[in-house]
Structures are given as C-alpha cells and as structure tokens.
Design goal:
By secondary structure, the chain is an alpha/beta fold. The chain is globular and about 60 Å long. It has 2 domains: about 180 residues, 2-Layer Sandwich (Nucleotidyltransferase, domain 5), CATH 3.30.420; about 170 residues, ATPase, nucleotide binding domain (Nucleotidyltransferase, domain 5, 2-Layer Sandwich), CATH 3.30.420.40. α5 crosses α14. The chain contains 15 helices and 12 strands. Strands 1, 2, 3, 4, 5, 6 and 12 form a 7-stranded mixed sheet that branches. It has a 5-stranded mixed sheet with strand order 9-8-7-10-11, sandwiched between helices.
Length: about 375
C-alpha cells in the first residue's frame, strides 16, 4: 500500500480525482480516473465516473467579479470557499463512481484562475488544505505556477494528456478545447512521431455565453445555439475584433478573462448594436468570432498535415458553434471528442488527474514546445491529508 504523503511508483496503478473549474465559470467538473502504467512512458486512463456541479448565480458572480475587482478580504474568503466547492465536487464524483476515498491516491485540483499574466504571474484560487481536510485525501494543486516560474506560459497544460492519451495512431491530430477560452494541441502520430505543440486560440465560450446572458438574462447561455442559428453574424464587427494583437501573436501564447472580460463583452454588444444588429445577430457574431479565431489559428500557425480537428468542452455541445467551425476549417474533418473517447465535458478534469499522477511519479507535466518554459518541470504542490 502507498503511504500517505509518499511518492508513487510509476509501475503502480492508481485512482485519482481530477478537478477543473474553467474560465467559463459555469461549474466544477470532477473526474474519477484509474491510471495503469504501460510499457516505457505509456499510461492508460479509465474514466470511472465524472460529475459537474454548476455554479449558482451568486457563485458565478463572485468568480467573475474577482477578475475585475476585489479586496484582500474578499479574495481570502473566496479562496477558502472555492476550496470547499471543489471538495464537494470531488466527493460527489467518488460517490457516483462508488469508490471509497481510502482507495484514492490523490485529488488533482486545477482551482479557478483569477489572473493569468505569463510569463510574469498566474493565480488560481481554491485552497488545497480545505480540500484535504474535507475529503481526507492528499491534494496536488497549483500546477501552472512552476511552468510560469520557469519562464513558460503555464498553459495550455492539457497538451500532455492530448499526447499521452488522445493521439491518433498514424496521423497528426488537432484537439481543440472550447471552454471559456479555446486552446488547441497539435499532436503527432502516436503522440511521439514529431513535436507536440499547442496554444490558446482565443475565446471559446466566454464571449458567446457573456453576450447571450447580457441580451437574454433569463438564459444561462445560448441553449442549443438557438439564438445564433436565428441570426446572421455582422462580419464587419468580427473582422474588426480579429484585429486584436493576441490573434496575430505567434505561439507559445495563452490568454484568459484578463482580455476577454465583461468589459470586452460590453464593447462587443455595443459594436453590434451600432451596426443595427438584432440580439440573435449579436450572438451569431460571437459564435463567428470564436469559429474564425480557431480557423485563423489553424491556417496561420499550423503547418503539420492535420487529419482531423477534434472538439471538446462546453462549446462542442453548441451545434451552431460546431457548424461554424466546420465551415471555417473545411475541408478538414471535424469530429467530436465524445464520439472518439468519452464525454468531452470530462476531458480537462481527466487531464489534470493525469498531471497529478505525473507529479506523484515525479515526472514532468509541462511540454516545453507548448509553454516555452526553460525546461521540463514536475508541476504541482502536494498537500498531505
């Protein structure tokens, strides 16, 4: 048996819980994952269960407001409260998986990003000690910090999971996550026959959801893409916004709500209104912004012979966005992560569970060709139960 607080032998199978609270601020996804080492550096991952605990309106407002303003007291309280919310999500997932906490080696918690300004700083809230106290399980957290300290972007960190778990056997593959922020991994055949690359493409659902809530406050987001499907994008507005310097910046690069914040969303809505756009047209324009930013990134920065683009995250459940991306990247094949692996909503939580496993086996979790760090680093800080 592995003693609490010790390292993990890389030859041992282990169950971990991955926790992810994304920039969309819609909730916490928890995934219970069994890792089984294979030959060499290989590892397989079995998703035992996953759950999503949505944030209520008050919780979401606190998280979104923290990006824009706050006092030390508010940040302190929020860090402890988020830790409690994360712990509750982990316990709910273990219950769904029918796994006793004594069988779990560790919880790997991404926390919730409040500020991300690489290579200078990054900040995720969600006190690991609170999670450890509530669950009685070791916690690995603060994954992004070490990569940023080493001069890297600290993102996207899911790239290592894309290489180790989701590569195509004999072709280059692009895996595009559509959370609050979009990120893509360019994965070589079998994950090994070339250089893995990745970067944030720009907004995923953050602008779409923010615009939908601003125009239809009774909706949490544009359900099933209905508003976007009923409208037409205002091309001139999208053209203007694609002039944002971030889109032209070559990788490695990452972004977040520091750029695509509520002030950005307000300006977006105002520009569309000035162009006499309806509410549906404005949401359609937000969808077009994300779709065209993905396509721009693929055309401008990807030279590898990609066979397919695999979509995951909340945006992959928006048929209007999926169709818009497919139209923009045609004739490249667009596929849904769910159709190839498991529920795409769990992907990032599984990725952070893998990062936790890598920490316990003392293996690097960052990919230098993705983040631009000075070298490979073991990511995360262990908080014993």
């Amino acid at each position: 048996m592995i003693a609490r607080g010790s390292g993990l032998d890389a030859r041992d199978a282990a169950i971990l819980v991955g926790l992810m609270s994304g920039t969309s601020a819609d909730g916490i996804t928890a995934a219970v994952v069994r890792f089984v080492p294979g030959a060499g550096e290989a590892v397989s991952a079995e998703l035992l269960a996953h759950t999503t605990r949505g944030y209520d309106q008050a919780q979401r407002e606190r998280l979104l407001a923290a990006v824009e303003r706050g006092t030390p007291a508010e940040y302190c309280r929020l860090a402890f409260d988020v830790g409690g919310w994360l712990a509750d999500a982990a316990l709910a997932a273990l219950d769904a998986a029918h796994v006793d906490s004594a069988r779990v080696r560790a919880i790997a918690s991404h926390g919730h990003t409040i500020w991300h300004q690489p290579p200078r700083a990054t900040w995720q809230l969600g006190e690991a000690a609170v999670i450890a106290e509530r669950t009685g399980i070791d916690v690995v957290s603060n994954f992004r910090v070490r990569d940023v300290a080493a001069g890297g972007q600290g993102a996207p960190l899911v790239a290592i999971a894309d290489r180790m778990l989701f590569a195509a056997p004999d072709a280059w593959r692009a895996l595009q996550n559509l959370g609050g922020i979009g990120n893509v991994s360019i994965v070589p055949p079998n994950g090994t026959q070339g250089t893995l690359r990745g970067f944030d493409t720009g907004p995923g659902c953050a602008v779409i959801d923010g615009v939908a809530r601003a125009l239809a406050p009774h909706l949490p987001y544009d359900v099933d893409g209905a508003m976007a499907r009923a409208g037409q994008p205002v091309r001139a507005v999208v053209d203007e916004l694609l002039g944002e310097p971030y889109f032209q910046q070559p990788p490695p690069k990452s972004t977040g709500r520091e750029l695509f914040d509520r002030a950005y969303i307000t300006r977006f809505v105002d520009r569309c209104r000035s162009a006499a756009a309806s509410s549906n047209d404005t949401v359609a324009s937000a969808v077009s912004l994300t779709a065209r930013s993905v396509a721009f990134a693929m055309h401008r920065f990807v030279r590898e012979p990609i066979a397919d683009l695999v979509l995951s995250g909340g945006g992959a459940r928006n048929p209007a966005l999926v169709d818009a991306i497919a139209a923009e990247v045609a004739p490249l094949a667009v596929r849904r992560f769910d159709d190839l692996f498991f529920a795409g909503d769990a992907k990032e939580a599984v990725a952070f569970a893998l990062l936790g496993w890598l920490n316990l086996t003392r293996r690097p979790g960052n990919v230098v060709s993705v983040t631009g760090a000075r070298g490979p680093r073991v990511l995360g800080t262990l908080t014993p139960a």
